[in-house]
Amino acid sequence: MTESVLVVVTAVLLLSVSEVITDCPPSSGIYLRHSGNCFFNGSYFTDSSIRSSATSLRLECGLPGETLSTGQWIGPDGEVPCGSGNKHNVQCTTGSGASLSIHINPANGYLGADGDGQYMCCLPTSCSTSGTNIITATIFRYSEIESFAVADLPSDMTVYPQEYKLSCTKIGFPEYGISMSIGATALASYTNCHDINNNNCPGTTDSSAPVDNTFLVQ
Ligand SMILES: *[C@@H]1O[C@H](CO)[C@@H](O)[C@H](O)[C@H]1NC(C)=O
User: Fold this and answer.
1) Coil, helix or strand at residue 216
2) Tens of pLDDT along 165-185?
3) What's in the keyword line of the UniProt record (predicted)?
4) With 162 labelled, which of 34, 66, 147, 181 sits at a CA distance of 20 to 30 A?
5) Do 148 and 130 fall within a single domain?
């Protein structure tokens, strides 16, 4: 037997979760700079945002007041070479002082699949040196689910019908499709969505569906 449960599905759309630090670059400490702004440790960047020959669109990691020794950028599949060559089309350039920037040369294509993930910049020495300064950034292809959460759960799980919220936050490429289901039950499904022109894909969607009781205790 199944009970009817109202499920509210909320898809919150964000272009970026990265926040900007006002004092950029800071006078001390390792920083991450892109397009003239500094970003917090662990910020997300799409491959298209660093795919340019413009210097300001390189993702720069710097350490004020230091001299580069053996600093490096390490991606999900190993070190990004600085000077020549690339790793899954990501290449590194040495800047002034202690700074190393990564970018994708459009002539080489796009970020390779194995280059999707977390990057770590270490200055002024290599990442294996203890005491080196580390800052991280995630570089991803297309779009990505940044978070998924269940909210507003009823205090009494045995009372029906009940209502709760599934929140999904997407970041990255503006075009996307989204579908949510519980088992074989579709809650919401949209295709050909666009962050700016998303008439057929509202940022917040509501959907009702019958859900098997057993889902609620899993
Ligand atoms: C940034 O985060 C990484 C991993 O979480 C950590 O090892 C590093 O020390 C952090 N760097 C700064 C400057 O907070």
Assistant:
1) helix
2) 777 777 777 788 878 777 888
3) Signal
4) 147
5) no
